[in-house]
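User: Reviewer 2 asked us to show a designed sequence for the structure in our supplementary figure. I'm pasting the structure tokens here. Could you produce the per-position amino acids so we can include them in the response letter?
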């Protein structure tokens, strides 16, 4: 299995959407919540030729599952025909997102005070997603989806008995994938996210997993700067194609 396919399969494994379809080189998920990757179709290769019949069948599958059609497609010449076909169907590229890869050892070096990790999250971990300043509906859905993975660790930084920063790493297809990075808005700028990443990285290294990836919106400059310090480099960029 090549790197692109392994990362895309691991991406979905981390949120374990209830309905998944593999069809003609695409992997489609039909969760009706707020996480884009769990309610979109993604090509498993970056040199996939367009097949109008497959696109028809994917659109029909979205309709059957009550989810608006959405395609998560990497930039690049190898998928240019797919871009053109989607544009002809009335889709537009939105929400530029970077896939970054790196080494767990780089993340582990971010902090000498790594966050604690556990095999299951507690209510304090979940509560961070519902904190002041966060979208309550989105937060509740993400907290639920990120606990569905079969092999994951949950990191949290506590301060005075209160959990103030969290994240999760899921393990599948030879990768550790990082998701759900959240810090209380009043505590940002204190290095807490670095502690979360360091804790997740130590858990990955303890399992013998060195390769790490994550996804970050291109517009999120502070997060990108942190990940750059951790040695994570852009592997590719994608857009969500929506009508």
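Assistant: Here is a per-position design you can include in the supplement:
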């Amino acid at each position: 299995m090549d790197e692109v396919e392994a990362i895309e399969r691991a991406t979905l494994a981390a949120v374990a959407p209830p309905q998944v379809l593999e069809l003609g080189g695409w992997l489609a998920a039909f969760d009706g919540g707020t996480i884009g990757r769990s309610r979109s179709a993604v090509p498993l290769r970056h040199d996939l030729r367009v097949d109008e019949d497959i696109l028809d069948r994917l659109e029909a599958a979205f309709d059957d599952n009550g989810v608006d059609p959405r395609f998560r497609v990497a930039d690049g010449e190898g998928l240019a025909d797919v871009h053109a076909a989607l544009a002809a169907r009335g889709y537009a590229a939105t929400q530029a997102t970077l896939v970054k890869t790196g080494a767990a050892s780089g993340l582990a070096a971010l902090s000498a005070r790594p966050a604690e990790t556990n095999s299951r999250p507690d209510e304090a971990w979940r509560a961070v997603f519902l904190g002041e300043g966060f979208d309550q509906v989105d937060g509740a859905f993400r907290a639920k989806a990120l606990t569905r993975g079969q092999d994951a660790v949950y990191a949290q930084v506590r301060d005075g008995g209160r959990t103030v920063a969290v994240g999760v790493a899921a393990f599948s297809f030879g990768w550790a994938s990082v998701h759900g990075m959240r810090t209380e808005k009043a505590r940002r700028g204190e290095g807490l996210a670095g502690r979360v990443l360091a804790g997740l990285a130590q858990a990955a290294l303890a399992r013998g997993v060195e390769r790490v990836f994550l996804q970050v919106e291109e517009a999120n400059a502070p997060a990108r700067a942190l990940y750059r310090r951790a040695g994570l480099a852009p592997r590719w960029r994608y857009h969500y194609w929506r009508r």
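For the response letter, you might also mention the following. The chain has a mean pLDDT of 95. Residues 49 and 165 are 42 Å apart (CA to CA).
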